[in-house]
Every structure is written in structure tokens, then in C-alpha cells.
């Protein structure tokens, strides 16, 4: 069974920063064999991709809303993926999820999902 556990969410003021982490585990789960993504879902809205990263970490994708402000990275030795968010805005408020895909495209169907971590941007 694969587990993805997010952490690092919380309340932050507009303009602030947060770093989300997602630790993966599973007896038969080879972390480096999966591309990873961060998604978010705000109340009343669909879940959308924020950023994604290839198996090696050499390639990334960012939604327009994240470009220039968010950075996705991964540490295959620690089975962890990160999302560093800066210049946060109230519209970034959402539940953030990490996910893993065995597909070769960063926007392919994702196979495993975490439970999510709440990020609230408010003064």
C-alpha cells in the first residue's frame, strides 16, 4: 500500500511563504519510478494541478498561477517532494494535495493521492 503524507500547511499572511512537504512510503513503492505533482482545491472549485516534476527532477511543470512564485523539487533519497511557495495571495487558499503518477506525462492520470494539507492566506 502506498502512502503519501503532506505537511507544512497553515495560516500565513499575504506576501508570506510556506514550504509543503510530502513523504511517500510503501513496501513496493519505488519513489523514483513516479512523477509527482501538487494539486489544490479551493472551496466550491475543482481540484487543479499546481506543479509537477519528473522522476529525476530534471523537468517541471507549473500552472500559470504558480509560475514565478512556487518551486517544486524532490529528494529521491528521502522519498519526499516539496512545494516552496512565496508571495502568497489570498487566492492561494486551498487544500493542497500531493500525488504520484506512473505515467510519462506530468498531466497524466495520477495513481496515488495524499490526504491534503490546508493552506490559508489571510491577514
The sequence of SSEs as H and E is: EEEEEEEEEEE
Rough outline? globular
Distance between the termini: 40 Å
Which stretches of 5+ consecutive residues score pLDDT under 50? none
**How much is the radius of gyration in Å?**
14 Å
Q: Can you give the helix content as a percent range?
A: under 10%
Strand content: over 45%
Q: What is the strand tally?
A: 11
Mean pLDDT across residues = 96
Q: How is the main sheet built?
A: 7 strands, mixed
Structural class: mainly beta
Count of DSSP H/I helices: 0
Structural notes for this entry:
This protein is 0% helix and 48% strand. The strands form 2 sheets. Strands 2, 4, 5, 6, 9, 10 and 11 form a 7-stranded mixed beta sheet that branches. Strand 7 and strand 8 form a beta hairpin. It is an all-beta fold and 123 residues long. The relative contact order is 0.32. The protein contains no helices and 11 strands.
Summarize the structure.
The protein has 123 residues and is mainly beta. 0% of the residues lie in helices and 48% in strands. The protein has no helices and 11 strands.
Describe the secondary-structure layout.
Blueprint: E1 3-7, E2 10-12, E3 18-25, E4 35-41, E5 48-53, E6 60-62, E7 70-75, E8 80-85, E9 94-101, E10 112-113, E11 117-121
Parallel strand pairs: 2-11
Antiparallel strand pairs: 1-3, 3-8, 4-5, 4-9, 5-6, 7-8, 9-10, 9-11
